[in-house]
Amino acid sequence: MSRKKVLIVSPCQGAYGGIEAFVFAVAAAVRREPDFEVRLRFKRVKGFALQPSLKTMLKGEEADFVYRADRELADEIRWADIVHLQNASPDVVAFTKFFRKPLVLTIHNYMPEGFTTHRLLWKISAKLADARWYNSRFVWETWEGAEKRLGSRKVATTSRLPEGFTPPEQRRGFAFIGRWIANKGVETLLDAYALAGLDPKKWPLVLMGEGPLRPMIEYAAQKRGISGVEVLGFVDEATKTARMQNARWMVVPPNTREDFGLTAVEARNLSVPCIITRDGGLPEAGGAQALICEPANPEGLAQLLRQAAAMSESEYAERAHRTKEELATELEPIEFYARAYRQLLRGERVE
């Protein structure tokens, strides 16, 4: 039996993030299927610089880098039987249509309001795909509005979701992980934690991740004498999982019109409920058991931290149980992608 060739293409700035985690997981899952051969290619975007975080995750992965609209990218698309593109890059869409290959898009990012030629070109590119999978209903609405196209649907983007469980009574404090950049909320969380006035021994805050704001956050915590804050920086997957599952709450407080919120999904798979902001698609990721406040509101977030700390053991245990139980009904299994590729290669619509 000849194997069908799948090319997964993802734009990349050089750092390891949610999209990179997602395509690694999809590629690994499809490679386990005997009827598929998979290539994973990262397309360098403007400002690309390979970071240590992505270098670490690339070890042992069958992946390579290509440039926008170049010969190597065209040759990879010619090789493929089906192309799975992350977002609607016009050059990849044009090559795929030229070679008459089936094209599916996973669209991770919302479409900003207002008209520009660039946005028009991306919307046209999305229309040309055989299937469009949006990672949240929020993102879907910004691309298609009220009139949804045939072949479009919501498919939440997940990666290798962490596994594990710590009994609720053994968990302590709050955890944050993310890129330390403007509007991801780490500075808001630090302010809120200081305002909350909780016992730092009973309610410590662990901060994980890297980014340009790290020196400022570390200086601010030290200068203001905020006790209970532990800064870990970039962590490997085992450390990340252990810290998440041992926290009572995962805090995800962006102010970015967040497209989805993979961190919240990962925490929920460990039965750890979330404290989130009402930001873009994040309420979809955080689920019904999350505590929610408005973005960029340290006082509101501080109140949620106090509410979490005052919650009874019975209510917390129920939320912890339900947040994972409900997640199972909200996600497609990773096997969805191989099944969908087969349908598209047969000329069928994916339902």
What fraction, in percent, of the residue positions are helical? 25-40%
The gyration radius over C-alpha positions equals: 21 Å
Count of separate DSSP helical elements: 14
Order of helices and strands: EHEHEHEHEHEHEEHEHEHEHEHEHHH
Describe the global form.
globular
Please indicate the count of domains: 2
**CATH topological fold name of the largest domain:** Rossmann fold
CATH superfamily of the largest domain: Glycogen Phosphorylase B
At CATH level 2, the architecture of the largest domain is: 3-Layer(aba) Sandwich
What's the pLDDT, averaged over the residues?
95
Physical arrangement of strands within the biggest beta sheet: 3-2-1-4-5-6-7
Strand segment tally: 13
Portion in strands:
15-25%
- Runs with pLDDT <50, length 5+? none
* Helix-strand category: alpha/beta
CATH class category name of the largest domain: Alpha Beta
Distance between the termini: 27 Å
Largest sheet: 7 strands, parallel
Written overview of the protein:
There is one protein chain. The protein contains 14 helices and 13 strands. Helix 7 crosses helix 12 (298-310). The longest helix is centred in the last third of the chain and has 15 residues, at 313-327. Strands 3-2-1-4-5-6-7 form a seven-stranded parallel beta sheet, with helices on both faces. The chain has a six-stranded parallel beta sheet with strand order 10-9-8-11-12-13, sandwiched between helices. The chain has two domains: 4-158 and 332-345, 3-Layer(aba) Sandwich (Rossmann fold); 168-327, Rossmann fold (3-Layer(aba) Sandwich). The mean pLDDT is 95. Helix content is 40%, strand content 18%. It is globular and about 60 Å long.
